[in-house]
């Protein structure tokens, strides 16, 4: 929730021998790099939950043009809402960076399966409302990266 909380958690983990021995010591040899950023849920989005257990997630990272949400926020929100209105996917959350690469927006979607996501996305691209909203938003876009996430059994979002 805040930086004091983050600091307390990091300090607790640094002093947790079980964490150090069972996780960190096993994970470090597998790590090539680490990227940290702080992102917040955008004010117009509530954190969602998947409609049912199972499924897959799509983590989409948008690098927007400098200027922040004051410049591109309204068009971006309209594009997100157009995708929601198609009904093929469920929005879990939209997050905007505070630290790290600025003007980065992450969107987390839930779908029943990768095939259902692909079919829904294909139909969305043929929906005139989605096409118009994306066309308006893309003028502020620098780049986009999509990642398919399949949750592990230990994930709270499995």
TrEMBL record:
<dbReference type="GO" id="GO:0000423">
    <property type="term" value="P:mitophagy"/>
</dbReference>
<feature type="domain" description="NIPSNAP">
    <location>
        <begin position="1"/>
        <end position="46"/>
    </location>
</feature>
<dbReference type="InterPro" id="IPR012577">
    <property type="entry name" value="NIPSNAP"/>
</dbReference>
<protein>
    <submittedName>
        <fullName>NPS3A protein</fullName>
    </submittedName>
</protein>
<comment type="similarity">
    <text>Belongs to the NipSnap family.</text>
</comment>
<dbReference type="Pfam" id="PF07978">
    <property type="entry name" value="NIPSNAP"/>
</dbReference>
<dbReference type="InterPro" id="IPR011008">
    <property type="entry name" value="Dimeric_a/b-barrel"/>
</dbReference>
<feature type="domain" description="NIPSNAP">
    <location>
        <begin position="57"/>
        <end position="156"/>
    </location>
</feature>
<dbReference type="GO" id="GO:0005739">
    <property type="term" value="C:mitochondrion"/>
</dbReference>
<dbReference type="InterPro" id="IPR051557">
    <property type="entry name" value="NipSnap_domain"/>
</dbReference>
């Amino acid at each position: 929730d805040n930086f004091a909380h983050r600091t307390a958690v990091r300090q607790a983990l640094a002093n947790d021998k079980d964490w150090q021995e069972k996780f960190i010591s096993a994970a470090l040899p597998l790590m090539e790099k680490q990227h940290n950023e702080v992102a917040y849920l955008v004010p117009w989005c509530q954190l969602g939950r998947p409609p049912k257990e199972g499924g897959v997630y799509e983590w989409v990272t948008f690098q927007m043009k400098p200027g922040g949400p004051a410049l591109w926020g309204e068009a971006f929100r309209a594009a997100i809402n157009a995708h929601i209105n198609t009904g093929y996917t469920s929005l879990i959350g939209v997050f905007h960076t505070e630290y790290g690469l600025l003007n980065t927006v992450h969107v987390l979607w839930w779908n029943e399966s990768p095939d259902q996501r692909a079919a829904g996305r294909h139909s969305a691209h043929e929906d005139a409302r989605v096409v118009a909203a994306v066309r308006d938003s893309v003028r502020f876009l620098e780049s986009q990266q999509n990642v398919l996430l399949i949750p592990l059994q230990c994930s709270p979002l499995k």
